[in-house]
From TrEMBL:
<dbReference type="InterPro" id="IPR005279">
    <property type="entry name" value="Dipep/tripep_permease"/>
</dbReference>
<dbReference type="InterPro" id="IPR050171">
    <property type="entry name" value="MFS_Transporters"/>
</dbReference>
<feature type="transmembrane region" description="Helical">
    <location>
        <begin position="333"/>
        <end position="351"/>
    </location>
</feature>
<dbReference type="InterPro" id="IPR036259">
    <property type="entry name" value="MFS_trans_sf"/>
</dbReference>
<feature type="transmembrane region" description="Helical">
    <location>
        <begin position="118"/>
        <end position="134"/>
    </location>
</feature>
<keyword id="KW-0813">Transport</keyword>
<dbReference type="Pfam" id="PF00854">
    <property type="entry name" value="PTR2"/>
</dbReference>
<dbReference type="InterPro" id="IPR000109">
    <property type="entry name" value="POT_fam"/>
</dbReference>
<feature type="transmembrane region" description="Helical">
    <location>
        <begin position="254"/>
        <end position="271"/>
    </location>
</feature>
<comment type="similarity">
    <text>Belongs to the major facilitator superfamily. Proton-dependent oligopeptide transporter (POT/PTR) (TC 2.A.17) family.</text>
</comment>
<feature type="transmembrane region" description="Helical">
    <location>
        <begin position="300"/>
        <end position="321"/>
    </location>
</feature>
<feature type="transmembrane region" description="Helical">
    <location>
        <begin position="397"/>
        <end position="416"/>
    </location>
</feature>
<keyword id="KW-1133">Transmembrane helix</keyword>
<feature type="domain" description="Major facilitator superfamily (MFS) profile">
    <location>
        <begin position="21"/>
        <end position="523"/>
    </location>
</feature>
<feature type="transmembrane region" description="Helical">
    <location>
        <begin position="428"/>
        <end position="451"/>
    </location>
</feature>
<feature type="transmembrane region" description="Helical">
    <location>
        <begin position="155"/>
        <end position="179"/>
    </location>
</feature>
<keyword id="KW-0812">Transmembrane</keyword>
């Protein structure tokens, strides 16, 4: 019997129209992003918090943003090494497990920063290395679940991206809250607990992927067991593939990946201000204290904002259980246990907030808006990409860049009343909320689409490596984002906060216009891939 999807027989059972293995990856990636974004939400706040009273390190803003840029940049450059190791030695699945283990140890080390500073830096190093093994290879497995290269794969990557942002949402919300309210090291430690759960649930369910993601040696052993006639067919296919890899078509497609990678630098350079200068704007320039009816309204809104996504994710979890529990019970039990814990923390947090008379919106809280909007809009965008209104990849990129620029334009408008050189202000929260909305809509047009196109355009033997190159672009963007953000004080002092944000308005919009101009050329170079 011919399977519709790659992987095992169990993987042919669908959840929301997609192979059940996609949702094993969905939850693995969700907990990894929980750990990454939970820690990222705290990094700049922890570094700039006062040593006495707040338990931070008392760094200057510029110093914190430079370290933030190096960290967020390096977690994207190590995937090129991790992709190469997986392609040539370990296979995708072993790389994912080892990467998750290293990241678990990294968070545990950061939780010990109260005993010695060295544990903080050791933790960052382990997170960087672990992410390099994890990030490109789990995305590569997603791509190989689908036999077609069309709209179905685009939709699958969008669903996967919803898992990424579900983890980011919960990580920023809970690690940020506990870090700011209870203690920085508790927030760092919480991030590691769920990374550990994600690793275990993936490890015990990995057979659902069949021979997808095996190491080269394991794949050879599997091939030896195949009948000679099938072996001959495979050899013929490989010969055709080898010839195609040298052809102009493959070269053109790789060039398109290069163009997409280049333009994604402009997107993430601006977008990654979220954990840097936008976090500083939230902490020091935004009115976050609410009383009376305003406090009550926020508490109700925050409860709905937290509970509704949790219910949606739990529903997806139940759908996965129905399809896979009989075959992969231990993985499902571990995943279910992690959700019981997370529900307990959510209920504790909401009860604690409702008992307080004054509502102080945490500076890290605004980061959850991006993830919430992703969860809310990802299904809509997934359906749009499957419809007749599906635009080309370059057009999606152009729209995404322009929406990002519009979000910063809103922040620039809201900042017009801040005096030159001001260290604090009380700007309305609505400007940050709207900025995150437009940034998120732009992200949905760029990031999941970019992942899908790398998977579709790259030759099979180079998929891991090309995902690594894709993430190198993110390294450049994140490093530059931290460096640019570190100039927030001199720019605000001489030109004003509005001018600072206008920089991040003009450049992405300009890049989007150029991408529109290149649209027809890039479509031609993709040679039929849409």
């Amino acid at each position: 019997m011919e399977f519709k999807f790659g992987g095992s027989e169990t993987n042919q059972k669908t959840v929301l129209g997609h192979p059940s293995g996609l949702f094993v990856l969905f939850f693995t990636e969700m907990w990894e992003r929980f750990s990454y974004y939970g820690m990222r939400a705290l990094l700049v706040l922890f570094l700039t918090a006062a040593i006495l009273g707040e338990g931070g390190w008392g760094w200057e803003r510029s110093e914190a943003l430079i370290l933030y840029g190096w960290y967020t940049g390096l977690v994207y450059i190590t995937p090129i090494i991790g992709g190469f190791i997986a392609d040539k030695i370990m296979g995708y699945r072993k790389a994912v497990v080892l990467g998750a283990l290293l990241m678990t140890l990294g968070h545990a080390s950061m939780a010990l920063e109260v005993t010695a500073d060295m544990f903080f830096y050791l933790g960052l190093g382990l997170l960087i290395i672990g992410n390099g093994l994890f990030k490109p290879n789990i995305s590569s497995i997603v791509g190989q679940l689908y036999k077609s290269q069309g709209k179905e794969k685009d939709a699958g990557y969008t669903i996967f991206y919803m898992g990424i942002n579900a983890g980011a949402f919960l990580g920023i919300l809970l690690c940020g809250y506990i870090g700011e309210s209870v203690g920085w090291h508790y927030g760092f430690g919480l991030a590691g607990i769920f990374m550990f759960f994600g690793m275990l649930q993936f490890f015990f369910a990995q057979k659902i992927f069949g021979n997808i993601g095996l190491s080269p040696k394991d794949a050879e052993d599997l091939d030896d067991a195949i009948e000679d006639s099938i072996e001959d067919t495979k050899d013929a296919i490989e010969a055709v593939a080898d010839h195609a890899s040298k052809s102009k078509i493959t070269a053109d497609r790789l060039k398109v990946i290069g163009v997409f990678s280049f333009f994604t630098i402009f997107f993430w350079w601006a977008f990654e201000q979220a954990g840097g200068s936008m976090t500083i704007f939230a902490a020091d320039y935004t009115d976050r204290i609410l009383t009376g009816d305003g406090a009550t309204t926020f508490k109700i809104f925050n409860t709905l904002l937290t509970v509704v996504p949790m219910l949606i994710i739990t529903w997806v979890l139940i759908l996965l259980f129905k399809q896979t529990f009989a075959k992969y019970a231990l993985s499902n039990v571990l995943l279910g246990t992690s959700f019981v814990i997370i529900w307990g923390i959510v209920i504790w947090m909401l009860n604690r907030e409702f008992s307080a008379e004054v509502a102080e919106v945490k500076a890290s809280w605004f980061g959850i808006l991006n993830s919430f909007f992703i969860i809310a809009f990802a299904p809509l965008f997934s359906k749009l990409w499957e419809s007749k209104y599906n635009p080309s990849g370059p057009v999606k990129f152009a729209i995404g860049l322009m929406l990002l620029g519009l979000g910063f334009g809103i922040l620039a408008y809201g900042s017009m009343g801040i005096p030159l050189g001001a260290k604090t202000a009380s700007v309305s929260m609505i400007f940050l909320v709207l900025a995150y909305l437009f940034h998120t809509l732009g992200e949905l047009c760029v990031s999941p689409v970019g992942l899908s196109y790398v998977s579709k355009l790259a030759p099979l033997k180079l998929v891991g490596m090309m995902f690594g190159i894709w993430f190198v672009a993110n390294f450049i963007a994140n490093l530059t984002a931290g460096w640019t953000g570190s100039y927030i004080d001199p720019i605000v002092e001489e030109y004003g906060m509005a001018t600072f944000f206008l920089i991040f308005t003009a450049i992405p919009v300009g890049a989007g216009i150029i991408m529109l101009i290149l649209n027809k050329t890039l479509i031609k170079m993709m040679h039929g891939i849409r």
